[in-house]
Predict the structure.
Amino acid sequence: MRATFFTVKKRLVVSLIVGLSLFLIISIRLGYVQFALGNFLTERAEDSWSRNVPFEPQRGDILDRNDVKLATNQSAPTIFVVPRQIENPTQVAKQLSDVLGMPVQKAYKHITKVTSIERLHPEGRKVTLDIANKIRDLDIKGVYIAEDSRRYYPYGKYLSHVLGFAGIDNQGLMGLEAYYDKELKGEEGNVRFFSDAKGKRMPKIADQYQSPVDGLDLRLTIDSRIQTAIERELDNAEALYNPEGIVAIAMNPNNGEILGMASRPSFNPIEYQTVSPEIYNRNLPVWSTYEPGSTFKIITLAAALEENLVNLQKDNFHDGGSVEVGGAHLHCWKSGGHGSQTFLEVVQNSCNPGFVELGDRLGKAKLFKYIKDFGFGEKTGIDLQGEGKGILFKLDRVGPLEAATTAFGQGVSVTPIQQVAAVAAVVNGGYLYKPYIAKELVDSKTGTVLKKFTPEMKRKVISEETSKQVRYALESVVAQGTGKNAFVDGLRVGGKTGTAQKVKDGRYMENNYIVSFIGFAPADKPEVVIYVAVDHPRDTLQFGGTVAAPIVGNIMKDIKQILDIKSRKGAIAKEYNSWLDPAPIIVPNFVGMDKSKLQTQLVELKIEASGSGNIVKFQSPAPGTKVKPNSKIRLFFDEEKNDKLKKK
């Protein structure tokens, strides 16, 4: 009996220990689940009960330097359904079909789909406010309207290649929209509600709202006033010349800021899906490469002056119309040549043989060193997609002919943005800047600048003295040479024309040119560089001076007012002695002349008469003034003087 008692007692103790151990284990486990895994399990449970209606963030605006909105957002709600909450699918499908314009069968398929939440795509995606209100008025259980937006470009085709566009999910696809997509897009938010396994909402659990984080605004270096002038002139040129394409860039030469950029053909970013990818994929100012023609002579000129190989005023050159190099005859554009001229006149006349001479003085090694120092043959690094880098001869493959043609802009392939950056360096004192178009990233709520993009100077290429000499030479091109159609009264403009024959399949095309002009102002202290190139203008003389220079001149007139550039002393007077200009007429002295004799004097002038009598008492403009043919001459006739003559 005693052994039996101890056995029972022992068993009870063991059972107690086991029970206590199990209790302890369960307690520890419950504590672990409650305190360590509680939040995790609660979240998992809530996830299984919850349904999220997404709220898209507002994509950041794109602004010009003066906060004009160039790309913004329009409210465009999106329709969602929770299929398990739909009580009468057939009826609801008919209602949604009527409002959204989608087939009833398609609507029914959406709202009966075995899923927690379903978006009605594409008919219910980014709908108008009117449609959203109609859906809301139906008050259908299980149908939800989520706040959403679509990208909106207030100015249509304006700056389209630069801005690019965003897709239906507000993701950047092209241009600045793609380049700065991470900064612009923001973070998605949502409204979270809870439902049971049958899809019915749990009334005792409050909805949760996670607000979206809007994207940052992007402020550009673009000046919309300058951009407007560029767009207007390109529209006019497109209508007048029906070209294959046009390119225009305006840049501040002192820091690399892009003030304006456009090209033709253009497109409306809102309707990009209706446009050929060949149009919107190619931002021509940074993408296209071609022979620059005579605008490239600026680089040769700067290099020769920097190396002290030419004196523009004292050195002379005889242009016989062509020069032989490596067995080939390189011709001047003017038949028979320009004869004896200073090298300043070589620049004014854009004389090819004269620049062959400058290239020869430099030698191929120095010539190509300066070409590369000015940034050709490499990307500028501008913050835009698809930039090209051009094509240069490899130095070991450059013979006398290749060096000669390169000196006047033939046989080398460059991009428009490279030319603008290089010429900016030539005229700003010799500093090569990286072009850039994004100025600041800004908090869209507070306006606080979160990041500022600053100018990046790559290197110094030439001296201030050389820059000064080139500026003077190029101002004389506009005042007295081939660039006269870019002349602006009251504004010192310098620049250079370019006419480059296009190449196809390794051969030059007949009567198919890219004509261009690159100008800067004011010539003594430049604030802007403008480049315009027109690809194959039709029904006109294909010369940079006749087509591109007037476009730059018209833009410069606007910029003078926009930047409030005051007239400066020291401007080179315009002369009318170019084949591009009609011969001027020197106004005769009409004072004292009888009206009957005026007809022989005014064959190419127009009269605006005032006063009475037959004798001229006063005239405007004054005698000796140079005017264009068909200019208006104001004459005042005095009756009193006429009566005295009769009495005599």
Summary: Residues 224-267+277-562 form a domain with the Beta-lactamase fold (CATH 3.40.710.10). The chain has 19 helices and 30 strands. Residues 641-648 have pLDDT under 50 and may be disordered.
